[in-house]
Amino acid sequence: MQVAEVDPIRTKRYVEETFRLLQAKPGVEDILIMNHSGVPVKTSMDRQESLQYACLYDNLKEKCQAFLTKMEPAQTLTFLRVRTKYHEVLITPDAKITVLVVQNAKDSFINIKG
Amino acid sequence: MQVAEVDPIRTKRYVEETFRLLQAKPGVEDILIMNHSGVPVKTSMDRQESLQYACLYDNLKEKCQAFLTKMEPAQTLTFLRVRTKYHEVLITPDAKITVLVVQNAKDSFINIKG
């Protein structure tokens, strides 16, 4: 028997609390929370930057979904981690909101000079 | 002084050894290694599936790069992790080859019935 997936409850208070908890984490540089249509609802960035990020992410999510549908049609994206030398973007979409966090990811063991 | 980034050496033997090491890891379901033009050079999948994956990944990488260039132009993708309920795709591109691993990611703490 397949457990029915109930849509999560995401009140304004939930969004504020998520934002507060994330902001308190060490290394977090930016946070962007979007609603299910991809519109920023809470952000640490300025308005312009938030909209740019939201739009870029929307394309990325679309390509990810196409990529996942190739594997098994039932797959939906639950977590996405994009890593560069200095930053890491963590993206957690669910049925109601998408949380995007940009964190500082300098490897302590890579001795980066200059 | 910025440390010059030397292109890594990726011989056929390096590719074979990487493939062997990954295959021995628990939970690994599929492995695809592509050259810098995105052509599969070593894979556990059949030919058709490898080409499909390689093509889908190419789109995904492009969108990721666009996403990262928004942050700071100097950013290049070093690692990508795409997670669904049952699978996780780990992608490690470098200057010469890209290694793509599909692994089983059933959370032991999520009790999935049916």
From TrEMBL, chains A, B:
<protein>
    <submittedName>
        <fullName>Dynein light chain roadblock-type 1</fullName>
    </submittedName>
</protein>
<comment type="similarity">
    <text>Belongs to the GAMAD family.</text>
</comment>
<feature type="domain" description="Roadblock/LAMTOR2">
    <location>
        <begin position="15"/>
        <end position="103"/>
    </location>
</feature>
<dbReference type="InterPro" id="IPR004942">
    <property type="entry name" value="Roadblock/LAMTOR2_dom"/>
</dbReference>
<dbReference type="Pfam" id="PF03259">
    <property type="entry name" value="Robl_LC7"/>
</dbReference>
